[in-house]
Amino acid sequence: MHRWLLILALTVCPGLVQATTFHVAQSGGSDGNSCSAAQNANTAKLTIGAGIGCLSGGDTLIIHAGTYPEQIHDHTIPSGSSGAPTIVKGNGNPAQGTGERAIIRTPPLGGYQSVMATSGHDIMIDGLVLDGINNKNVVLEFAGGPNLTLQNSEIMNMGPIPNDGNGAACVDLVVEGGNNRVIHNKIHDCQNSGDDPNGLSTHCIYTHGNNNTVDGNEIFNCGNHGIQQFNNPGSGITSNGNTFKNNRIYNCAARGILLSSGDNNIAYNNIIYNSGFNKPGGGRGALACTDGNNNQFYNNTVYGNLVGLRAGPQGPNGTVFRNNIVFNNNTDFQTDGSNGTVDDHNLLGVNPLFVNAGAGDFHVQSNSPASNAGVAVSIVTTDFDGNTRGNPPELGAFEIGGAPPQPPTPLPPPVNLRLVP
Q: Quick one: average pLDDT of 238-265?
């Protein structure tokens, strides 16, 4: 049946051709193999650069296990199209520790360099390990957009940056096009520049652009912020309508999540702990909004940081803190210079009876004062684990004994088509 549908699609839309999958492998691979041969894993290309050279928009490149001393730069990955991205992926899920580990580790090149950079649109990076130990700028730079995705990957390490007041990031979303996603990754040890007296150093994620989603990541050991969202009007790039949810963020020198500017950004179901102690200056809120309008923080769990929640000092307008658990921070809540900050239905400085905070388990016990103490928020329908939120919901990132999420509706088998000129 699917064969006849494919034939019909090709007949009615002759501009559609079947997308192709290519392979790169250090075991048995050779750049002398043709692109046609590289469609078979046994006759793969040897280098990633040669494999990318085989791609057209909408194709897939699978990178098999090994350490590749390459720089995927010069924006060579071709753009895909809406619903048919160009995919560069490993053959495993390193964020979960499963399958093969395809490691890209750029050799020392001098100057400001990155491991991977893209400037196209509709591109997916999936299941890779990007190791920036030898570079001095960013590990992954997403520029361009829209519809860029980083998922199921491990992004790690950052070589020392010069003490010149310039910051850096492990993942840098410098995108004009929106609707980009950073989901289900492990991003860590972006911190080897802590001697910067300006307090800039290295963020784990630095992002500006509109309507982006950062969801379900484990983020730790960051030399500055875990996530900094930034509005950059000087370059014509705004940063509005972004969503930061279901992230576990810890051991950051400064803030866990900073909404430093932009409007209508939302952070919910995040867990942030042991952050804010190792950068100059005070007021390093685990969840902070320093500028912008109507930025919102719902159902987050904030534990053991220098400052829990913070609004200011540039005078953000209409910041909302609601349904959060904020406990065992040096200061739980701080505002200065902000306008119209809303602070309600939060558990501040009261023991929430975590299951085992010392082991990083921030579920709450059944007799917790956070139980049924929240107010329903229309956008927060599930908790950190994917359980359905009650009405009224628990405070913080977790429901108590919530109903398990419904399994997703399975997608039909892919037709694997792409548009050609």
A: 93
Coil, strand or helix: which one is 60?
strand
Most confident of 48-62, 71-85, 329-343: 48-62
* CATH number for position 345: 2.160.20.10
SS3 for 346?
coil
Q: How many domains does the chain have?
A: 1
Question: Rounded mean pLDDT of 327-342?
Answer: 87
Which of 377, 147, 250, 141 is CA-nearest to residue 390? Answer: 377
CA-to-CA distance for 344 and 62, rounded, in angstroms? 49
Cα angle: 292, vertex 214, 24; to 5 degrees: 140
Question: How many CB atoms within 10 Å of residue 42?
Answer: 12
Whether residue 62 lies inside any domain: the answer is no
CA distance 226 to 249: 6
Quote the strand ranges of 43-132, DSSP E. 60-63, 66-68, 86-90, 92-93, 98-99, 102-105, 114-118, 123-126, 129-131
Stretch 321-332: mean pLDDT, rounded?
96
- Residue 249 belongs to what domain range? 90-97+106-404
Cβ atoms of 125 and 153 closer than 8 Å? yes
pTM here?
0.90
Whether residue 239 is contained in a domain is answered as yes
Does residue 375 sit within a domain? yes
